[in-house]
Each structure stands twice: as structure tokens, then as C-alpha cells.
Amino acid sequence: MRPHPTSLAEAVRWAAEGGDALAVTIDEFLDAFYTETDPGRRAAMIREEPPRLGRERDDAYVGAVAEHLARRWGLPVPAWAAADDREVSEPWFVGSMGKSLAPLLLVESPIAFRRRRIFTEAEPLRRARMPLDASVNPFAPA
User: What is the pLDDT of residues 121-134, one digit of tens each?
Assistant: First the structure.
């Protein structure tokens, strides 16, 4: 069993090399990100710009992931993630229900996703390892 990717860029590289689907490598990266407790190391995990995959949705999603993690965990948003060219040209309603949940997704989507025209649930990067304690998660209820 290989280790989790140590950065978002590494996760995208693994997907680009054809080892796994992007969703799988990002989930593995999120597990590593959520178990890291040092803010400086967390920031480093999203600092390097991942390679472009050449698929509009995937490239926009990767930018949204980095920006959302930075905002959610009080880290600097990497300049590459804030680039205007990491967005989709047509609105994308993520998930199996897609457009049937459009009104809900329009309201719930975090800004990092919404500004790219990606509409998803309120906590799109939820994982079992995601910290819920307020000392690590500034948005957790007190």
C-alpha cells in the first residue's frame, strides 16, 4: 500500500500518471491534510501549483480544493489557486443528483467553488478524518 500524497500537487500528478482517478488521489490527499496539525505544513501541502490535466472541470476543481482548504483552515490562498482561468465555462452541479438539487447547491456551495461556477454541498471535502474540534477547526461549533 502506498502512502498518501503529501501535497495536492502530488495527488494531481498521481492522477495524471494514470494510477488512480483524480477523486481518489484527492481523497487520499485530504486524509493526509486533515491529519496534519501544523498550519505551516498544511499551507505547504497546497502551496505548489499542481500540473494542469487539460480537463476544464478537473483543473477548476483542483483550484477550488486548494482555495477552500486555505479559507477553511485559515491559511494563505495560493496565488495559483486564485487564478481566474481555473473555472468552468458552464455551471457544473456536482453529484449524482446534479441539476435536480440546483437551488440547494446554489445556496450551499462554498465561495471557492461557487466563484468557479462549481455548485456542490456545503462541505464538499468532508472525510472521516476531517477534524471537528474547534481548536483545529475554526468553523466548528463551540
Answer: 989 998 877 876 54
